[in-house]
Each structure stands twice: as C-alpha cells, then as structure tokens.
Amino acid sequence: MRRAVVLAALLASPRRRAVGAALHEAWRFQTDGPVHGAAAVAGGLAFVPSEDGHVYAFDLRTGRQRWVLATGSSVWATPAVTRGCSTSARATTAMYALRARDGRRRWTFRAGGDITGGAALAPGW
Fold first, then answer.
1. CA–CA separation, 65 vs 79, rounded Å?
2. Could you report the per-residue pLDDT of 30-54, keeping only the tens digit for each?
3. How far apart are the C-alpha atoms of 105 and 87, rounded to whole Å?
C-alpha cells in the first residue's frame, strides 16, 4: 500500500509574507494510505483526509496530532471547515460533522451511495 506524507511548509520569517518568500519544512506526518483530498486549514489546525480510513487534525505550528477519527472506510474528499465544525466524507456512504477542536462527532449523514466529493457550505450554516 502506498503511504502519503503530510508536509507543512512555513515562511522562513513570520514577517516575510511576499510571494516567493523562502519556505522550509516545519513538520511531517506519514499516513498509512494515500491522501487524495487537500488539507483544509482553519483555526491553527490542518484537517487531512486519508485513504487509510482516518481524518487527522494537526496543529499547524508544531505538527502535533490533535485528534484522529477512524471512519471505517477511505476518506477521499477535502474537509470543509466553518464555525468550529469540520465536515468529512468517507467513501462509503457517510458524511460527518466534527467539532474542530477535538474531533467529536456532531452529526452523521448516511447517503444512498459513495461520496467522493467534499461538502459545500451555505451561509448561516
């Protein structure tokens, strides 16, 4: 099985925000499966879906894993994050709303088939 490595690149200086500023690797984490969706970033956290059946949340600054959710199936879609809630969809029929700070499930939606795309969030959600 191919594994994915999650890398975080930070600007060399917090005061240097120019395009093309020097980047350096801040931390890395290796999942047990490929990562097809992009990480979502909000509130100082990176939310990463993985085909290994997990959604991971990492502290952007330190790379420390804050929480992990075992979904029981591959997670292909990029999470969506709003108002302290992250949504993640597993490939086989379920979408989850998670509390961003600790990964606790707020709700689960069971679809009638595979979910391969991310959530679209409406104003006021």
1. 16
2. 899 988 888 888 889 999 999 899 9
3. 10
Whether the CB-CB separation of 70 and 52 falls below 8 Å is answered with no
Rounded distance, CA 5 to CA 52, Å? 12
Residue 26 buriedness (CB in 10 A; 0-12 / 13-18 / 19+): middle
Q: Amino acid letter at 65?
A: Q
Task: With CA atoms as reference, report the closest residue to 76 among 58, 93, 62.
Answer: 93
pLDDT tens digit string along 66-103? 999 998 888 888 888 887 877 777 767 888 888 899 99
CATH number 2.40.10.480 is the correct assignment for the domain at 33-110: yes
Q: Which residue has the tokens 């952007």?
A: 60
Q: What angle do CA 84, 61, 57 make, to 5 degrees?
A: 45
Q: Which of 7-11, 20-24, 56-60, 72-76 has the lowest mean pLDDT?
A: 7-11
